[in-house]
Structures are given as structure tokens and as C-alpha cells.
């Protein structure tokens, strides 16, 4: 991947990607740090708020229950309450001898069959018989017949009956005192007000007129209730100042609804004559936990709530979601695995109190006496931030939690995350555009240099790029200009060298051979139909002077050859080669000439004269024998690395033979050649005509090229 990135894209793209990567990485790191710090700060803030809510609501519940207990204790010391207890107790005992008729009993049983047992059967285990639920005493059955079965008011308003149809002493006392108790209950917002005989546990008075009215609490189905157990403790202790705070339970007389009580003994002097039982209103506890259903004002937003949970994992206060959206709550509980029976109880009683087990990590920790804060899963299966702890409320093992959904709690930080993402994206786009523009401007000098490189590669050498500034690109431009200038100079030198080589080849070889050699073509023999060839044999070269060294003799010989070359060039004659006292010249080979024979004859005469002068100048004794012939010859390059251009044919053979067999300072020619030179007066004295044809000798060779 890195190799592809390095090799496949341009520098401008690499620079853009690199800057974009660096900028985006920095922005992402800064954004992540900001997001993380923001989340930590927000979590700490939510923790403080939920902890404060938990502590505050918990303290309010503790104070409320303590106030409730104090009220009960104060009421039991009231003369009016003592008087009520005395009167109802006495009148209840009077009814023990007042047996109800069979018809009245059947009417009461029918009341149980129609209005009580069907409601209990829906949401409580088992299906008790009506006979099992009747009060154990005659007085109790009579009171239920008179105040329940004969009550014309709705079941929830049976407390409105003050005077029953009978005219017993109990009915008179009830009519006299019930309105006073009703005023007290309404003022102090109790749910129920009951008076229990301390000796018999008979409920001699009940404000609500539920089926515990007239019942004997330590007998039958009611003997297993927490209320009965608390009254038994009060009867055993007989402490005037003791108060029993009785936890919630599913209470049969309230048709299975959750009920909690406060009980305290009533003393008449030193005698314990009864127990005052107040049934706590669930609504008041809910108001404390829900801020009277105004959760937003309490800083709990749309999903926050505070809940009381007992040691049995059951709720002791109402869920916010049961109040606001019960149907959605039921769906969430069903999805979270709550049984259908429990869902039916919630639907029937319209409450989660004592109906929904809360087996969560927060409740487990609170039951162990721990308090803390964390992110956990609540009873709906949602992730929440939750604060948990226990309450100090008498013998009640209650715990309190305050929580809010994670999605709502972290909504500000999620919004910040979206803003950061949008910002980083915008930064990346701006950086990409700016980097593209800046890199294009930055790389302009490099692009000009690259353009110059391409022009040089295409063959131009007169290339110069402008030098702007004094940075690395400017230095590179200067170096490029120097290189281009040197390349131009070297090209000129090369052209000159090529021209010199061409001229050298042209001077040494015929034009056809030169063209084939330059183009790398295969060498083939060249036919020259009419040339003149001169062979000069210099005798005496091997012994130029015995008084000189070999080096000196070689220098003298070289001087002689140079003189012959200069004379040949001045005469328009081409040198074919020289070696060991032999010098071969030709005319009309490389360049066609009409007078090639006359030129070469004049050159031959000049050679004789020049050798004579050379002898005089250097005190040598050289003799020149010359053979001159004209006619067709064949020439070709022979060899590869060190080639030789050879001339072949009768003309060449005759020329060589003439020189090797002639007299000194003479030019031997054939009769035909002589006839062509008859009119040239300058050569008449040195010409020697050969009449007999020559035998064939080896070809004439030029010097190695």
C-alpha cells in the first residue's frame, strides 16, 4: 500500500494527502480529547446531580416516615383516641351475643362471592372459599353484613357510610365518631385508620370498611400478614412508646393491593387496650420520589427517576414510566423477560409497587450496604447512569436509587461529538482545497524544471528555466540551467567530433563505404569504373642514416610521409596508405574527377622532385620508383575492429608491379596511359612505358583505419 502510494501518485497529491492526514489526525486527536474530557466532566456532573437527588429524596422519605411514626405515637396518647378505642371495643363486645340470621349470613357470603373473591382470584394465588374469609366472631360477621354488604356506596367509597341500618349501640357510637375520624384522616392524609383490640386482635373499627373490618387478625388468612406479626410484637412488648413500621405487602383486605402500616399501642392508664393502625398512603411516598410527577423541575429530565426498592427486590414506589407511558413500559418489561402473570398484575393494579422484581447490579450493591454511582442496566433493559444507596428507616430494609438514561444524560456530549465530526470534516475539506492550491503554487518551479527536462529529453539544449527566489527549488533551477548549458556545449563538441570523424572517413574511404559504415550496414565491394592509382616505392628507408638512432630515423621517415600527405592534399590526390617505404595514392576515388590521371601524373612528378630535395636536406639517399595506372578497381572494407580498405583489380596490380620493377626517379605506365599523357610536357622526361603485361600480385591495401 505504501509502495503504491509512493510510486503511483504525483508529488502534489502526496503533499495534499500528507497535509490532510496530518491536519485531520491532529483535529481528530484534539476532538477526541475534547470529547473524552467533556464526557468525563458531564459524567461527574450527572453523578453529582443523581447523588444529590438520591440523598435528598432518601432524606425526605426518612423524615416522612419518622413524622408518620411520631404522629401515630402522638395520636395514641390522645384522649379522644383512647375514648374511641374504649367505646368501639366495648360496643364490639356487646355484639358478640348478637348472632346474625341465616339470611344475613347468605347475603354476606354472596357479597364475598360477587365482589371480593373474583378480584382476589385474578391476582392472588389460590381461590379461597367465602366461608374461609368470613370473620371468626359473630360481632365481626354482623358488622361486615351491616357496613359492607348493606353499603349502597361504591367499594372505593364505603367509608362514606356513617349510620348503618341497625340501631345497635355500635351503630350509634359509629355514627357519633366516624365523622371525626374522617376529618382526621382527610387532614393528615391517611389511607386507613383502624382500631384493634389488644386482647383479641379484633379490628373493632376501620375507616375504609374493607374486609379486615371486624376480622380477627391472628386467626385465619390474616394471621400470616406482616400487620398481624407487628401487632403480636406490640402485644408481647406492651411498650407504650413503641411504634411498628410495617413494610409493604400484598394485602388481601385491599384486594391484593400493596399496603404499608404504622402501628402503636393504645393505653388506658396502665392497661393496653388496643392498637392504632394507620395505613400509609402510597401517593405521598410517590410524591416525595417523583416531586409530584414534576421530574423535570427536579433536574431528572425526560427519563430520570428515583425509586425505593425493598430487600425482596420489589419496588416500594411508583415508576415514572408507569405514570407517563404504561403501555410502553409493559412492552419494555415484557421484552426484558417479565412473566405474563406479573404483567397482568401490573395491568390490574396499575402499579409496579410489589409487582416487579428489580434484580439489577445497583440494587444488589445497595442491599449489601454499599453506595455508589455507575453505568448499569435498569429494570427496563436500558443503559442508565445510576446512583444507589440504602435508607435508615427503622427496621425497614429499603434502598433508594436515582437514575437517568445514558442516551439522555450524554445527549450534550453526543451533540458535541456530532459538531466535532462536522467541524473536522469541514476542516478536512478546507485543508484539502487550500493544500491543493498551495501545493500547485509551491510546485510551480518544480513543474517548470520538469518541463525543461522534457524539452531536453526531446532534444532541445537551448533550455533555460527562470530562477525565482533563493530556496531549494531555485538552487535546483540553477543546477538544471548549468546542466542544460553543459549538455549544449557537449552536444556541440560531439557534433564537431562527429563532423571531424566524418571528414576523416571521407578522406580515407570512398563515399559509399563511408555511408554504409555510418549507418551500420553490411559492407559490400564498391566498383569504381575509372580511377588513377599511384604506387610509390621508397628504397633506402631501412638505412636512412647509419649515424642516427632508430628513433631519429623514424622521425625523419615520418617527416617524409607528412610531406607526401601535404603534397597529396594540395594536388587533390587521396592517400590510400603507407607502410614500410611504400606510399599509395589515388585520384577520382572518393570524389570523381575528369582529370584524375593528369592530376595524379603531376603529383608523381612533384614526388620525384620532393624526394630529391629531401635527400639534400637530410643527407639521405632515398630513391623513388613510381608505378601509375588508370582504369577500373574494386574496393571494400576488410576487418571489424581495425578495418582496412582494400583496392583490388588489374589496375591495382599493374600499378604495384610497375613500382617494384621500375627504375629510380621514373614513372612506369602502360602504353594506353602514356598515350593519355602525351600532351603533358612536365612528365615526359620521367615516364617509362611498359609494353609486356604484368603478372597478378596481391592487392593494394590502405593503412589501417
Description:
The protein has 705 residues and is α+β, with helices and mostly antiparallel strands. The strands form 3 sheets. Strands 10, 11, 12, 13, 14, 15, 16 and 17 form an 8-stranded mixed beta sheet that branches. The chain contains 22 helices and 17 strands. Helix content is 51%, strand content 17%. The chain is rod-shaped, with a radius of gyration of 68 Å.
Share of helix, binned: 40-55%
Number of extended strands: 17
Cα-to-Cα separation, first versus last residue: 58 Å
Strand % is: 15-25%
Largest sheet: 8 strands, mixed
Give the CATH superfamily of the domain at 77-280: PAS domain
Shape: rod-shaped
In short:
With 705 residues, the chain is α+β, with helices and mostly antiparallel strands.
What is the fold's blueprint, element by element?
Blueprint: H1 2-8, H2 11-76, H3 79-94, H4 102-123, H5 130-133, H6 138-149, H7 169-188, E1 192-197, E2 203-206, H8 226-237, E3 244-251, E4 257-268, E5 271-279, H9 282-290, E6 305-309, H10 320-324, H11 326-335, H12 340-349, H13 361-367, E7 372-377, E8 383-390, E9 399-405, H14 406-409, H15 411-442, H16 444-457, H17 472-508, H18 511-518, E10 526-539, H19 550-571, E11 574-579, E12 582-587, H20 596-618, E13 623-638, E14 644-648, H21 650-661, E15 666-670, H22 671-677, E16 687-690, E17 700-701
Parallel strand pairs: 13-15, 15-16
Antiparallel strand pairs: 1-2, 1-5, 3-4, 4-5, 6-9, 7-8, 8-9, 10-12, 10-13, 11-12, 13-14, 14-17
Helix pairs in contact: 2-15, 3-7, 4-6, 16-17, 19-20
Amino acid at each position: 500500500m505504501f509502495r503504491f502510494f509512493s510510486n503511483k501518485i504525483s508529488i502534489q497529491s502526496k503533499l495534499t494527502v500528507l497535509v490532510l492526514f496530518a491536519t485531520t489526525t491532529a483535529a481528530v486527536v484534539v476532538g477526541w480529547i475534547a470529547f473524552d474530557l467533556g464526557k468525563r466532566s458531564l459524567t461527574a456532573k450527572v453523578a453529582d446531580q443523581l447523588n444529590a437527588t438520591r440523598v435528598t429524596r432518601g432524606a425526605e422519605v426518612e423524615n416522612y416516615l419518622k413524622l408518620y411514626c411520631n404522629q401515630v405515637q402522638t395520636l395514641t396518647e390522645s384522649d379522644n383516641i383512647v375514648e374511641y378505642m374504649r367505646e368501639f371495643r366495648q360496643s364490639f363486645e356487646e355484639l358478640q351475643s348478637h348472632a346474625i340470621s341465616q339470611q344475613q349470613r347468605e347475603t354476606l357470603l354472596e357479597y364475598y362471592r360477587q365482589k371480593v373473591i373474583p378480584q382476589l382470584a385474578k391476582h392472588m394465588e389460590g381461590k379461597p372459599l367465602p366461608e374461609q374469609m368470613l370473620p371468626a366472631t359473630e360481632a365481626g360477621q354482623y358488622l361486615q353484613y351491616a357496613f359492607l354488604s348493606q353499603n349502597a356506596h361504591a367499594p372505593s367509597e364505603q367509608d362514606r357510610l356513617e349510620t348503618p341500618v341497625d340501631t345497635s349501640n355500635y351503630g350509634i357510637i359509629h355514627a357519633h365518631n366516624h365523622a371525626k375520624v374522617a376529618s382526621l384522616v382527610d387532614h393528615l392524609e391517611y389511607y386507613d385508620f383502624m382500631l384493634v383490640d389488644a386482647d383479641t386482635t379484633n379490628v373493632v373499627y376501620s375507616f375504609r370498611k374493607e374486609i379486615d373490618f371486624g376480622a380477627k387478625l391472628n386467626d385465619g388468612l390474616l394471621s400470616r400478614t406482616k400487620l398481624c406479626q407487628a401487632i403480636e410484637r406490640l402485644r408481647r412488648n406492651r411498650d407504650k412508646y413503641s411504634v411498628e413500621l410495617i413494610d409493604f405487602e400484598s394485602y388481601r383486605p385491599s384486594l391484593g393491593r400493596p399496603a404499608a402500616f404504622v402501628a402503636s399501642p393504645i393505653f388506658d392508664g396502665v392497661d393496653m387496650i388496643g392498637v392504632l393502625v394507620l395505613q400509609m398512603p402510597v401517593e405521598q411516598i410517590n410524591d416525595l420520589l417523583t416531586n409530584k410527577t414534576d421530574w423535570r423541575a427536579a433536574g431528572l429530565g425526560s427519563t430520570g427517576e428515583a425509586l425505593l426498592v425493598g430487600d425482596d427486590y420489589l419496588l416500594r414506589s411508583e415508576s415514572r414510566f408507569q405514570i407517563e407511558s404504561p403501555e410502553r413500559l409493559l412492552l419494555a418489561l415484557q421484552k426484558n423477560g417479565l412473566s405474563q402473570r406479573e404483567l397482568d398484575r401490573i395491568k390490574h393494579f396499575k402499579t409496579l409497587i410489589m409487582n416487579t422484581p428489580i434484580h439489577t447490579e445497583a440494587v444488589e450493591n445497595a442491599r449489601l450496604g454499599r453506595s455508589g454511582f455507575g453505568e448499569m442496566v435498569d429494570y427496563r433493559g436500558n443503559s442508565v447512569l445510576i446512583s444507589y444507596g440504602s435508607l435508615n428507616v427503622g427496621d425497614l430494609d429499603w434502598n433508594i436509587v436515582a437514575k437517568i438514561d445514558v442516551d439522555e444524560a450524554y445527549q450534550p456530549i453526543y451533540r458535541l461529538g456530532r459538531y466535532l465530526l462536522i467541524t473536522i470534516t469541514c476542516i478536512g475539506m478546507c485543508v484539502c482545497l487550500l493544500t491543493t492550491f498551495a501545493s500547485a503554487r509551491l510546485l510551480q518551479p518544480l513543474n517548470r524544471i520538469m518541463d525543461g527536462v522534457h524539452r531536453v529529453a526531446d532534444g532541445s539544449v537551448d533550455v533555460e528555466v527562470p530562477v525565482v527566489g533563493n530556496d531549494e527549488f531555485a538552487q535546483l533551477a540553477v543546477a538544471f540551467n548549468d546542466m542544460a548549458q553543459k549538455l549544449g556545449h557537449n552536444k556541440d563538441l560531439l557534433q564537431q567530433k562527429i563532423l571531424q570523424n566524418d571528414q576523416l572517413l571521407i578522406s580515407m574511404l570512398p563515399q559509399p563505404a563511408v555511408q554504409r559504415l555510418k549507418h551500420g550496414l553490411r559492407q559490400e565491394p564498391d566498383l569504381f569504373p575509372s580511377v588513377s592509382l599511384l604506387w610509390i616505392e621508397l628504397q633506402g628507408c631501412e638505412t636512412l642514416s647509419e649515424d642516427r638512432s632508430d628513433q631519429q630515423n623514424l622521425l625523419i621517415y615520418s617527416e617524409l610521409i607528412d610531406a607526401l600527405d601535404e603534397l597529396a592534399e594540395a594536388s587533390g590526390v587521396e592517400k590510400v596508405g603507407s607502410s614500410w617505404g611504400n606510399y599509395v595514392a589515388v585520384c577520382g576515388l572518393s570524389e570523381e574527377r575528369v582529370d584524375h590521371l593528369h592530376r595524379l601524373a603531376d603529383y608523381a612528378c612533384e614526388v620525384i622532385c620532393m624526394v630529391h630535395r629531401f635527400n639534400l636536406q637530410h643527407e639521405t639517399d632515398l630513391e623513388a620508383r613510381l608505378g601509375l595506372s588508370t582504369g577500373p578497381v574494386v574496393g571494400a572494407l576488410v576487418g571489424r575492429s581495425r578495418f582496412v580498405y582494400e583496392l583490388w583489380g588489374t589496375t591495382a596490380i599493374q600499378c604495384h608491379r610497375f613500382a617494384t620493377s621500375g627504375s629510380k626517379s621514373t614513372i612506369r605506365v602502360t602504353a594506353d596511359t602514356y598515350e593519355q599523357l602525351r600532351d603533358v610536357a612536365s612528365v615526359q622526361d620521367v615516364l617509362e612505358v611498359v609494353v609486356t603485361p604484368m603478372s597478378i600480385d596481391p592487392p593494394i591495401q590502405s593503412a589501417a583505419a
